[in-house]
Amino acid sequence: MADPRYIAGKKPHPRERRMIFRNVDRSGWDASIATYRKDGGYRELKKALKMKPAAVTDEVKASGLRGRGGAGFPTGVKWGFIPPDNNKPIYLICNADESEPGTFKDRYIIHQDPHQLLEGILISSYAVGAKVAYIYIREEFPEGAVILERAIEEARTAKLLGKKILGTDFECEIYIHRGAGAYICGEETGLIESLEGKRPYPRIKPPYFPAVLGLYMCPTIVNNVESLCHVKHVMAMGGKKYAQLGTPRNTGTRILCVSGDVQKPGYFEIEVGKLTMGELIEDLCGGMKKGRKLKAVIPGGSSAKVLRAGETYTIRDGDKEKTIGLPDIPMDFDSLAACGSMAGSGGVIVMDDSRDMTWVLNNINTFYAHESCGQCTPCREGSLWMKKITDRMLSGGGVPSDVETLVSVGNNIAGRTICAFGEACAWPTQSFVAKFPEEFKKHTSRRNIGKALNPETKTASAGLGD
Amino acid sequence: MVASKDSGENLVSVQVDDHWISVPRGTRMIEACKQAAAEVPHYCYHPKLTSPGNCRMCLVEMGMPPRPSPGEEPELDADGHAKINWMPRPVIACANTVVDGMGIRTQSLLAKECRQGVMEFLLINHPLDCPICDQAGECTLQEYSVEHGNGQSRFLESKVKKPKNVEIGPRIRLDDERCVLCSRCVRFSKEVVDDDVFGFVDRGSHSVLTVHPDRKLENNYSLNTVDICPVGALTSNDFRFKMRVWFMRETKSLCTGCARGCNTVVGSREGKIYRQSPRENNDVNSAWMCDTGRMEYHQLENPARLTEPMIKRGKKHRTVDWPEAICRAARDLTKFKGEQLAIIASGRMTNEELYLTRTLAESLQPGVVDIVKREGEGDDYLSHCDKNPNVNGARKVLKIRSPGSKLKSIRKRIVEDKIKALLVIGEDLIDCGFTEGELSSLQCLVSSHIIANPTAKMSHVVLPGAGYAEKRGSMINATGRLQRLNKAIDPPGQSREDWEILHELNRAVDGCDGVTELADVFTQMASTLSIFKGLSLSRIGDLGVDVMDTGETVPLLEREARRVSEGLIVG
Ligand SMILES: Cc1cc2nc3c(=O)[nH]c(=O)nc-3n(C[C@H](O)[C@H](O)[C@H](O)COP(=O)(O)O)c2cc1C
Ligand code: SF4
Ligand code: SF4
Ligand code: SF4
Ligand code: FES
To answer: Hey, which of A357, B147, B425, B489 would disulfide with A436, CB 3.0 to 4.6 Å?
Structure first.
């Protein structure tokens, strides 16, 4: 396998470690099965089929692979939750709903390397004992759905799907399911309900843990697109070898999607934890926009708690503790969690000093108020309430009690809802208000009542005094 | 409850608000709290329905015993229980089950804050409709906001507007602004009566309950949704705006619409019934009743109600007082014996009335006694195809072997002029196929009914009786359960409870029957009929007793039992 060449202007940054995105923007590359196989594709499937399913799972466990969909849960451990005495069918679902704002990685895999995903799904299905796998792809990816359908047809023609795959007793079908156009369809139990043809109302856990009572009340493994692709590479390298990528407990590579006020936003595949936030912004993204300073970063998709430039954090460094600043945070699961936020879906949203934080929060609140499924009380009522408060603050109608009300609404949502959307919509409010109190107070001070934010620039330069 | 035998092994210890109790393994936390007299407020939870856990009102603090590492002994509290590790996150009590050593706090700061938060969320977009809302007085939102709310509104925004006064079916209206989206109505319709007609549309705070665009909520159990709706979102057209609930008197009784004998509560005020709703009885009707039965009380408001005893003179009836009417009926009836006299009673009569009919028959010695058969359509839930509520009583008490089998020959023998006198109780014979010609050929026709029906019009003596909610007595339903009917209101005008009428007739015919009150009738009955042995009217209790094995089961209860055994519902 020769080192791939990339199309002009799309060459990966030298600090990237392209594995999942190896073929993204690759010159001479296309989504066909011929191209994929010429490059060694489906070899790992062959390798896996020679092993016992449990041995494949063991490799994934050994690899330390953690889910790339948001929660960072160890993939092999999740697979192990299927009850050993199960006699119902087992399903595997690939979560291709990619809808967390700030996240745009799965679509490139689907568009440019669909067979990598199919191979990952087949290996994973084999490991968990699924004969049917679904790819739940968001409604807003119509082209991706067509590409996947085509890839499935190619795979079927090549006898990589259906019965007797590669001449073994392994059988598996993969179906594409177009999503229902809602963010909540990405939450795994909402997704399952949607796949069953219902409204994507998330289920209560317990008792409806997907690995036990999932699709059609059968054991179901839901994994993110990127997570499933990693399984192929775990097979290629072996779990132990894979685990040497990245840092301990934060193994492998992951794709970070950087958006916002940087020079060169985009996707970057890095070894987990081998890069700091500062390096990501300065080196890979070419720094902040001209003349602008870093103000804040949302490090893991819009629901992750915001980090403020100038803050310090205490993280563990081996046995010791050390104090670091925002640019020093290693981009891995545990470090970001230790800093009070999360690695989430890998969507890094960077904001410079031109941003009005109330406007940013209002933007996020608008999204969550619109996307709350409406099933459970705190999120249903609280998400719109928070949005209405920030709306009012921006239009010059803020009152001093707003700041306190905002926080307490957030507090009354987080930890009290059916699904993690509750946290997703409360964390922005909780963190923005806690970390930028002066900006929120500005919108609620008597002096500024009646002064609306400049709707054109949406910046703080709208003449609000302090 | 899930565990049927409370053997020691099936019991677990749970600490509720600092007190340890024992409950069967698998008990929902909310039920365990109830047993510990710590009622957990809730909206979406209903023991007969699945638990979506959507309202979040039942959030409580939960703790678990620590899992000591091997060889390590857990730290014990003063009661000898392992010390509880309290979780930082609250859990819903409705859908989670207890485990041994679990701790539940329903009154901790966290639990209270959770409830207060949920109450505030439910109220911010709730309209200020209480003064005009039928649910006021039995509204859980009202009730809990007093107990768990924070009294003041911090909500400065405008409320979400939603559809109001939507006709979703022939009997029910929906106010979406009042709806707390608990999905009880959705689940009832889908899970209990297989009519998945409700659904939610739109999202977030704009979510609204609706019925499927091409369909209506019109199944025969639709009004149960009004009962279980915790707020005033679903209102019954029949009850809407008629009466404030706190003014009503509630009487536990039965529906007499069919042989199921659904247990009910009759709501009345100043001699008028305003509504009838199901009363839980897990051996009869679970917590439900059909709409047909529920609406039956309107028959009592029939403008053609008989209110005074009457005697026919020539072609005209004139009103008389009771002694005269009874005296006349007894005098006329005793003129005929055996072959010449027939009695047609009713499967709608109570056991006591049937018993007094039997003693009357023992004196009058009629050639034939029968009741009218009332076959109709039943369904797979509660409604029974036998529309007589007390055929089993007629079988046992009046010794009717095959209900309605003799009516044809009675008609024939009237035509043949062999039967000359007829006592009809609680039935309209014209409605049963008798002709006016046949009835007019009788020399003596005495009838008792509540409505001025064609039979009454032809009768020589008319005795106005009481409707089912205007009297007491007992009945035996299709599965052989003896149950008690109670009096919610007085019968109108001079009309009387039927047992009294029959009692007076007995006395007029035979002198004394040893009865002064209704309970005496039952006592007499119990001394002659083995199935009632050891029972009295009061001992029947509110939920009844099984006195016969009819081999019948209740389809709705069977399905409910299946859902219980699958752990889907508490039951
Ligand atoms: C509100 C919400 C939205 C989510 N959306 C996505 C999504 O779009 N894609 C995704 O892979 N996971 C999403 N998740 C996470 C999934 O529930 C699930 O944890 C994930 O698909 C598991 O895959 P992984 O273990 O491979 O990460 C979402 C979770 C929540 C609470
Ligand atoms: S938390 Fe929000 S999104 Fe999740 S179930 Fe509740 S209302 Fe729906
Ligand atoms: S109408 Fe009533 S029962 Fe139905 S969802 Fe709304 S509040 Fe619940
Ligand atoms: S099922 Fe029969 S007894 Fe029950 S409510 Fe209906 S008519 Fe009345
Ligand atoms: S009662 Fe509604 S969540 Fe428990």
So the answer is: A357
